[in-house]
């Protein structure tokens, strides 16, 4: 992402922000509240359109003007509020917007392939070792942790190249956090890049390769995890750094 | 694959199951109780003729309720169903009597006109962010006004005899309007349960932001659903034209009340995202049976309107209490 800017009325949410992620890399995106972290990632996921700047993938300029564009490029986002519809069931949520269909009458009727969606959802959920036994259960009947698991199942279901996670550990207990961090490591091993927005630096230091710091809509620093400390990153979050743009 | 873990059958669990069963079939239980009371209070109620008469008189309400169910599932409302029903009735009659067209072209034009009404309402909701209350309220006035302009406030007579079959004919013992309503209900049920659009309607009604982030074109879903509602209203209007053997701009003035009441009693939540076509069928039957019962008991139509209004309040109240209890349980 090059020189991304975004304003909401008089508020400059992002100002000429650069952001880069390599294949099979885990990048932590950190910053104080209202630093622009979620806004930047929503631009990448197509939820917002940048006022200025460009996005490149594998060196080629790409246009992302809605979530479908982003998904077609292999980018998936795990939203902080999970972005699930509580009134429909687990497999309907996992496949929402990308439902599997069966053609009838030479393709005139496209009927939902519920059986296949349910089977694949069970498979995904078992791979994630989630404690959910019925994929036809409505999402609003699940606990917060289970709902997040459904949201995770959705982002890994479609062979993404890049997964963005917005505060993925915020609502989890210690055990679930460990499980999620393991999942991030496994995704990296499979060649998938992951961007983790988080306030919890210990999580970023546990799985990340590098960390990028935003402050009041500007990028104020980048550090490789192996070459920095939590203290230094904290200093960047609070004070920023000269010379970064 | 993970194995299903069987729940131990404790007393508490079986009580919960029982409660869930009662909740699930509460509308059906309500319908049975109303039928029992009416059977005991009126000797004319429990007969095949009366049953068929109930279905016939409410076939148009059932068709209107189908469109409204889809709209309310989205968390929107369509106040124009009665007005568009009148327009459909008048356009079909006008085309046959003054336009010199045959039955089929007249029906098609009436359906296109009513679908367009829904499309226009939907366009403002989807792309100008109008609240559906406003855009369909406006369309209610426009459609009713146009229907009265077409007829100069009078009725259009002289419809072809064969046109009566749609509203007055029957196949075996079943009246044609009832069969048409059954087909519409069945199609809508399939749409909601077997098609992508149905899934998207539930998702938009349940969490519009989640639906948008999932790549669903929310505006298009609203546009399609309000158009379907317009189509259903036009179809109901055509049936009324055939039943009355005339085009009348004043028909369907109380149909909105009955159709909304049916949908809500059938368990469709005004908040959106919750509801089914089988529920709406039960809702239509309850309203129809109550109206029929009140007629048999000699209650005036003005008091019937009051009764339907009270029933709507009760149904919304029950829905709200049920929702709060579910939130508490969680």
Description:
- The complex is a heterodimer of chains A (245) and B (330).
- Chain A is α/β, with parallel strands linked by helices.
- Chain A folds into two domains: 1-74 and 161-245, Rossmann fold, CATH 3.40.50; 86-158, no CATH class.
- Helices cover 33% and strands 26% of the residues of chain A.
- Chain A is built from eight helices and twelve strands.
- Chain A has helices at residues 37-45, 67-72, 90-94, 114-127, 144-156, 174-189, 201-207, 230-239; strands at 2-8, 11-17, 26-31, 52-57, 60-62, 75-78, 101-104, 109-112, 162-166, 193-197, 210-215, 218-224.
- Chain A has a six-stranded mixed β-sheet, sandwiched between helices. Chain A has a four-stranded antiparallel β-sheet with strand order 2-1-4-5, with helices on one face.
- The model of chain B is unreliable at 1-11 (pLDDT under 50).
- Chain B is built from 15 helices and four strands.
- Chain B is globular.
- The two termini of chain B are 28 Å apart.
- Chain B has a single domain, classed as ABC transporter involved in vitamin B12 uptake, BtuC.
- At the A-B interface, helix 2, strand 8 and helix 4 of A face helix 10 and helix 11 of B.
Structural class of chain A: alpha/beta
The number of E-state strands of chain B comes to: 4
Largest interface: A-B, 32 and 27 residues
CATH architecture of the largest domain in chain A: 3-Layer(aba) Sandwich
Number of strands of chain A: 12
SS class of chain B: mainly alpha
Taking Cα atoms only, what radius of gyration of chain B do you get, to the nearest Å? 21 Å
What number of structural domains do the residues of chain A give? 2
User: H/E element string of chain B?
Assistant: HHHHHHHEHEEHHHHEHHH
End-to-end Cα distance of chain B, whole Å, is 28 Å
> What would the CATH topology of the largest domain in chain A be?
Rossmann fold
Stretches of chain A where pLDDT is under 50 for at least 5 consecutive residues are none
Rounded average pLDDT of chain B = 90
Secondary structure tally, helices of chain A? 8
Number of helices of chain B: 15
| CATH homology group of the largest domain in chain A | P-loop containing nucleotide triphosphate hydrolases
| CATH fold naming of chain B | ABC transporter involved in vitamin B12 uptake, BtuC
Describe the strand arrangement of the main beta sheet of chain A, using strand numbers: 6-9-10-3-11-12
Approximate strand percentage of chain B = under 5%
């Amino acid at each position: 992402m090059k020189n991304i800017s975004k304003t909401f009325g008089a508020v400059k949410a992002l100002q000429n922000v650069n952001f880069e992620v390599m294949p099979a890399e885990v990048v932590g995106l950190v910053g104080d509240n209202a630093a622009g972290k979620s806004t930047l990632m929503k631009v990448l996921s197509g939820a917002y359109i940048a006022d200025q700047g460009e996005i490149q993938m594998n060196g080629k300029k790409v246009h992302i003007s809605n979530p479908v564009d982003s998904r077609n490029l292999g980018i998936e986002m795990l939203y902080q509020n999970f972005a699930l519809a509580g009134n429909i069931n687990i497999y309907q949520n996992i496949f929402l917007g990308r439902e599997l269909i069966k053609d009838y009458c030479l393709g005139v009727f496209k009927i939902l392939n519920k059986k296949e969606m349910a089977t694949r959802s069970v498979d995904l959920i078992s791979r994630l070792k989630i404690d959910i036994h019925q994929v036809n259960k409505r999402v609003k009947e699940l606990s917060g942790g289970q709902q997040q698991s459904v949201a995770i199942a959705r982002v890994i279901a479609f062979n993404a190249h890049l997964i963005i996670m917005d505060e993925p550990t915020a609502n989890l207990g210690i055990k679930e956090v460990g499980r999620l961090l393991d999942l991030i490591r496994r995704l990296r091993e499979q060649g998938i890049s992951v961007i983790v927005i988080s306030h919890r630096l210990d999580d970023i230091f546990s799985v990340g390769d590098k960390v990028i710091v935003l402050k009041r809509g500007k990028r104020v620093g980048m550090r490789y995890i192996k070459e920095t400390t939590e203290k230094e990153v904290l200093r960047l979050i609070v004070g920023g750094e000269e010379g970064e743009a | 694959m993970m194995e299903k873990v069987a729940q131990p059958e404790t007393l508490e669990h079986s009580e919960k199951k029982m409660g869930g069963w009662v909740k699930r079939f509460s509308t059906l239980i309500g319908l049975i109780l109303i039928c029992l009371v009416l059977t005991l209070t009126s000797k004319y109620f429990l007969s095949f003729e009366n049953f068929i008469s109930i279905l016939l008189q409410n076939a148009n309400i059932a068709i209107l309720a189908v469109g409204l169910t889809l709209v309310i599932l989205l968390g929107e409302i369509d106040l124009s169903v009665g007005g568009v029903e009148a327009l459909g009735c008048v356009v079909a009659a006008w085309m046959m009597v003054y336009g010199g067209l045959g039955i089929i072209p007249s029906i098609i034009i009436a359906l296109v006109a009513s679908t367009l009404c829904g499309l226009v309402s939907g366009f403002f909701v989807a792309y100008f962010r109008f609240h559906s209350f406003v855009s369909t309220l406006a369309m209610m006035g426009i459609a009713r006004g146009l229907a009265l302009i077409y007829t100069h406030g009078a009725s259009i007579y002289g419809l072809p005899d064969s046109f009566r079959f749609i509203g007055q004919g029957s196949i075996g013992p079943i009246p044609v309007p009832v069969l048409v309503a059954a087909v519409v209900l069945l199609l809508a049920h399939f749409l909601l349960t077997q098609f992508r659009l149905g899934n998207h309607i539930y998702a938009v009604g349940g969490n519009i932001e989640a639906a948008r982030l999932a790549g669903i074109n929310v505006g298009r879903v609203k546009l399609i659903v309000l158009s379907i509602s317009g189509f259903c209203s036009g179809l109901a209007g055509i049936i009324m034209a055939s039943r009355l053997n005339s085009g009348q701009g004043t028909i369907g003035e109380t149909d909105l009340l009955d159709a909304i009441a049916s949908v809500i009693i059938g368990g469709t939540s005004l908040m959106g995202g919750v509801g089914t076509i089988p529920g709406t069928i039960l809702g239509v039957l309850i309203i129809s049976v109550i109206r029929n019962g009140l007629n048999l008991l000699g209650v005036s139509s003005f008091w019937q309107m009051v009764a339907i209004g009270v029933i709507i309040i009760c149904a919304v109240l029950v829905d709200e209490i049920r929702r709060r209890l579910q939130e508490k349980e969680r």
